[in-house]
Amino acid sequence: MRFVRDIEADIVVFDAYGTVFDVHSAVMKAGQALGPRAQALSDLWRQKQLEYTWVRTLMGRYDSFWALTAQSLDYALATLAPEHSGLRPALLEAYRHLDAYGDARPVLERLRDNKIKTAILSNGDGTMLEDAVKAAGLDALFGGLISIEEIGLYKTAPEAYQLVKGAFGIEANRTLFISSNRWDVAGARLAGFHPLWINRTGRVDEYSDCPPDAILKSLAEIF
Q: Spelled out in words, what is the top-level CATH class assigned to the domain 25-95?
């Protein structure tokens, strides 16, 4: 099937967190007591969560994404709202059941109707991904949920992207990869994928030596 800019692909692989699932919805749902600090705490939680994955991979000391999610939340609460540490259980529970972006379901349904293979490739643990797609009602719309826990190396390690070929036998140059994380798009480019950057918030581009095939404002624009 042809996609934006006439890209031909045999599989469409999505990043999960920030692309299909809104990582800030956990705080929006379970962190009302934070008041005006809610967005800042959510931003710091996400920043540290990603930072911890990169540091762990560089150190060669893997810890699960769920453990790093909890550790990064602890840091964010201690830094910005120590008096609200009691929110920790509710925030972590909400993270396992994040809201999907509104543009995700229509795109996935169209891909299914056109008999295009779909998958998630994520830093998230397998059980986290299962919980997320089930909570969002998207579990029947993905042909596979691929977690880096299989190898213990987080994206953007090249081995993480090679998991797609291992799972489906499809070559990198026949893989359309979609992410809202620019660093992830850069890693996918170096892995040989056709990467699309979903830039919902109009961020400035970076990693000019690892460009996306296209920059889109929503998942709906991939067709």
A: mainly alpha
Handedness of CA 23, 25, 29, 35 (dihedral sign): positive
Q: Which of 158, 201, 167 is nearest to 18 (CA)?
A: 201
Beta strand extents in 55-160 (DSSP E only): 117-122, 145-147
pLDDT tens across 132-166, in order? 999 999 999 999 999 999 999 999 999 999 999 99
Backbone angles phi, psi at 31, to 5 degrees: -120, 30
Which spans in 114-220 are helix H?
126-135, 158-161, 163-168, 182-190
List the catalytic residue out of 15, 125, 131, 213: 15
The verdict on whether 15 is a catalytic residue reads yes
| Segment 92-120, tens digit of pLDDT | 999 999 999 999 999 999 999 999 999 99
Residue keyed to tokens 């040989």: 192
- Domain boundaries along the sequence of the chain: 4-22+99-222, 25-95
The domain 4-22+99-222: what is its CATH number? 3.40.50.1000
Q: Which residues contact 166 (CB under 8 A, 6 or more apart)?
A: none
* Tokens standing for residue 127: 């059980």
Q: What is the mean pLDDT of residues 175-186?
A: 98
